[in-house]
Write a structure and sequence with these properties.
Elements: H1 4-38, H2 40-46
Keywords: Membrane, Transmembrane, Transmembrane helix
Transmembrane segments: 12-31
Region (Disordered): 39-58
Length: 58
Amino acid sequence: MPDLKPDYTIFFVFTGIGGLFVLLLIAFLIFRHLQSHCGTQHNGRNATYSPGDGITFG
């Protein structure tokens, strides 16, 4: 029983870091996908929004 606990905590830490990394990777891929689809309009909306300027983010 005492041997099991350290292994389990290490496993939990690794899966936690791995899960966060996977989520970040998925979010990045989705962001890139949306960016390529929407083009410059998406960039303009994400940057500091000013109706007169339009695109302020290059």
